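Input record, target 12 of the design panel.
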């Protein structure tokens, strides 16, 4: 057996990664060359789980400095059920984005498991899957919307959102219609639909990203500060859209630097600090606990 992933390079977006069927942010999967022996799922996972993270670790080796290691995650456990919206909170550097990127397999984790229950009911450890299976899951079942849309070149706004729908099983005609509805919902004007997404403003890109992430909602949606670049009116429209995901049964794992958004959307808040889970509970309890290191706008 080859060495498990205990460290990672500081340039995790490079390497012979597969092309995902669709990813709104066009982030390649972290290359999975080292291989990790697939383990059997533990028997004590919640029966309705979509995502069960167990003992997740992640370290970064700073090759370009002096080879020292930064430990970002120290053994995180977390469950997300269908229709549940779990918001990650904690100060800057706590490990929130790293956790989302490990789940989306942009980063290879250094230890632990990331159990994802597929639509077919199988439990797969995303941390140990071959790249090709990760690419399939990303297109069909796991969505990721980050702060920044990195659009694929020469693709129109309309095409980006439509192809997200076809990747999740819609016919092309249905996906085109749904893409138009989604673009209207996030207030992207029709004259922008044929333009290449690369020329859009930051806030417009973020809204296209949300439209693509929520069309034919995936089983698991990962959101990393998805409204950070939006003005109040657009922010409210996007938060409405995210709120409606509960009705579709989508499991959401999010990061918002905004107490109001967490309070409105989250069914549970998990507070990270120094790469560990410090607390978890309903927003009404967690957000009022002045002893917790929360870094949110009030
Ligand atoms: N690619 C990388 N290379 C080296 N270190 C990294 C890398 N990505 C994250 N880290 C380190 O991991 C730790 C956690 O970072 P992360 O981005 O997950 O924090 P965060 O909770 O999302 O913070 P913020 O609220 O500022 O977005 C930090 O110490 C960070 O410097
Ligand atoms: Mg972050």
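The sequence produced for target 12 reads:
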């Amino acid at each position: 057996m080859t060495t498990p992933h205990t460290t990672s390079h500081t340039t995790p977006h490079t390497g012979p990664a597969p092309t995902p069927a669709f990813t709104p942010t066009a982030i390649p999967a972290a290359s999975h060359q080292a291989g990790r022996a697939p383990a059997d799922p533990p028997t004590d996972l919640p029966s309705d789980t979509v995502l069960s993270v167990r003992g997740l670790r992640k370290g970064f080796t700073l090759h370009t400095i002096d080879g020292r290691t930064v430990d970002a995650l120290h053994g995180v456990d977390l469950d997300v059920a269908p229709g549940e919206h779990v918001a990650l909170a904690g100060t800057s550097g706590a490990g929130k984005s790293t956790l989302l990127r490990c789940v989306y397999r942009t980063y290879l984790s250094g230890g632990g498991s990331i159990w994802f229950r597929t639509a077919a009911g199988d439990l797969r450890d995303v941390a140990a899957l071959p790249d090709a299976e990760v690419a399939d899951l990303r297109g069909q079942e796991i969505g990721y919307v980050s702060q920044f849309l990195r659009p694929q070149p020469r693709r129109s706004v309309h095409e980006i959102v439509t192809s997200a729908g076809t990747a999740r099983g819609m016919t092309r005609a249905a996906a085109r219609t749904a893409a138009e509805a989604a673009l209207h919902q996030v207030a992207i004007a029709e004259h922008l639909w044929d333009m290449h997404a690369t020329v859009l403003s930051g806030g417009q890109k973020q809204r296209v990203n949300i439209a693509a992430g929520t069309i034919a909602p995936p089983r698991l949606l990962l959101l990393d500060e998805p409204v950070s670049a939006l003005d109040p009116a657009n922010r409210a429209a996007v938060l409405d859209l995210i709120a409606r995901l509960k009705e579709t049964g989508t499991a959401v794992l999010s990061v918002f630097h905004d107490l109001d958004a967490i309070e409105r959307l989250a069914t549970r808040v998990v507070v990270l600090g120094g790469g560990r889970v410090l607390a978890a509970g309903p927003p009404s309890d967690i957000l009022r606990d002045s002893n917790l290191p929360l870094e949110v706008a009030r």
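The radius of gyration is 18 Å.
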